[in-house]
Amino acid sequence: MILRFVDESGHIKERLHVWIKLEIKSDCPIYDDAASMQWQYSGVRTLVQQQNPRAIHVWCFSHVLNLVVVDTCDSCEETRNFFGNIRSLKELMRARKRTALFLEYQKKFYPDKKPLRMKTFSTTRWNSHHRSLFVIFEKFKAIVASLEDFSESIDRLCSSTANNLLKNITSFSFVTVMFLMNKIFDNTSPLSTYLQTPSNDYIQALTMVDIADQRLSKLRTQESVDTILQESKEFSVKNELDEIEFPKIRKMKRKRMDDENNSDEITNSPVDYFRTNVYFLSIDKIKVSLTVRFKDARNIMKDLSFLSYERLMKVSNGDVVPKNTFDSLKTYIPEIDKDSIGMEYRNFAMSFQKLQSGICPEQLHDEDVLISENTSDEDDSIINSEWMTKT
């Protein structure tokens, strides 16, 4: 226990007061995915499991997803610069006068729409990135007009920052990355929203991770790349930008050896570069990050997933239950009879569909069937018989 205090001179000081030995009795502590928590030698996870070997390593899914966001934003130079420009734009708009000017331009260009303010990037909320992109996408003309005014400011810092941002956000590269990130967020935001709810189901969370991964896989096609490029071009034309396609890459000249042919020198086009080094790379990065960061959690759910509605329905329809289904229970209840538990599970699954379809709220609360304290055994038999007949 460390005490932190202010002394008589106003200086902040800390003093070690006492050592307290904690006994970790919880079998299910929760961690985020930071290195200090996960490190295999001196991380909190390792220290806890030294005291309690049965402690399950459970991740905080919201923190894990946030790390997926970080991986995605830093997947390549273009995405890093993209989110860096958005953060700089938000910082520039913090002043009241600049925000007021931005709102005035929104009324001019979008008179029928509600004015919006620039959103702050949160380090723990995936949706904050999506909201920021939404404002830029919806109010792009107002942002450009505001930056043009800011670039003429007598404040040197404001002027230079606005000039740089104006050049960057009106580039075709910025527009294409904006459309790409919007596509990614559209397919992953439902997962983010669900993980941030006060109560959520662990199995459902992993199911939604799989759904997000499947949706991202469908984006990894040449057709999707062409769609992004076409939408970006239409957006650039609509907003009267100078760049409506990627600028041509100037081929670097080098001395050619005598045994080389002109065909030996291959230069990728800007579209090829975007497809390979930006679009596919970003999709692959987020898919790998989702897989790796949520992988270990699936081992914990190996047995619990058999209690999900979908799995019970499959088993009731004849799916085979693996022999190692309840192996992990032996860790916590050594005396458990795994074979008996497996048989009970199969019997329950086979009756699950019939049980579910037979339960009717009206029958459960039938006012004509009341059991008094003086009901005889014979009366109980009659009531049970009537109940079985109804169900």
Q: Care to describe what's here?
A:
This protein has 391 residues and is mainly alpha-helical. Helices cover 61% and strands 4% of the residues. It has helices at residues 35-38, 44-51, 61-73, 77-92, 96-109, 126-138, 140-150, 156-169, 172-195, 202-219, 222-238, 270-304, 309-316, 329-332, 338-358, 361-364, 377-390; strands at 2-6, 12-16, 30-31, 58-59. It is extended. 17% of the residues are buried. The model is unreliable at 367-391 (pLDDT under 50).
Q: Write down the secondary-structure element order.
A: EEEHHEHHHHHHHHHHHHHHH
Mean pLDDT: 78
Distance between the termini: 62 Å
Q: What portion of the residues fall into strands of 2 or more residues?
A: under 5%
Oligomeric description of these chains: single chain
Shape: extended
Cα-based radius of gyration, to the nearest Å: 30 Å
Please state how the strands of the largest beta sheet are arranged side by side.
1-2
Q: Level of helix content?
A: 55-70%
Q: Point out poorly predicted stretches.
A: 367-391
Summing up helix and strand content along with how strands pair, one would put the structural category as mainly alpha
Number of helices: 17
Total number of strands: 4
- Main sheet record: 2 strands, antiparallel
